[in-house]
Design goal:
By secondary structure, the chain is α+β, with helices and mostly antiparallel strands. The chain has a single domain, classed as SH3 type barrels, CATH 2.30.30. The protein has a five-stranded antiparallel beta sheet with strand order 4-3-2-1-5, with no helix packed on it.
Amino acid sequence: MLRPTDFPFVWFWKARLAERRGQRLRVLARGTLNSCLVEFEDGFRAITSRNALRRASVSDELEKPVGKKLDADPPAAYFSLEVFEKIGGRTRART
């Protein structure tokens, strides 16, 4: 079972991936130009700006919106993992 500390950030932006606002996520890799690869609790991954993230707090878990689960993954926030690695992003090896 996943703990809230496994996903220490929440999605903050409304302009991109607005349906994910307030959902918990974790950073898998940090890249250049303030970009990062993030993974949400449901396994969806996106490459985005780190400005879109905020540290999660206990109150975030209490205020988490209740709604229907997404049927399909929304498009990536900026670009694919291949482009991310091509422009100098580095991914951390999974342990």
